[in-house]
Design brief:
It is built from four helices and no strands. By secondary structure, it is mainly α.
Length: 58
């Protein structure tokens, strides 16, 4: 899970976006998404990872 979170964070950075911008784009709470994507061992729900990944891949 940590590898996926790092990959998502890298994609966000490569696109020149912030976590807040991604959260707004997928209609999710920016504070909660920031907590989910923190560099820690806590898992992110699959539905949220899917939404973020789907948005970043477009």
């Amino acid at each position: 899970m940590e590898a996926q979170k790092l990959e998502i964070a890298k994609k966000i950075e490569e696109k020149g976006m912030t976590v807040e911008q991604v959260a707004e784009a997928i209609q999710f709470d920016p504070n909660l998404l920031s907590l989910y994507l923190a560099d820690d061992a806590y898992p992110v729900p699959n539905r949220i990872m899917d939404k973020v990944s789907g948005y970043l891949n477009n």
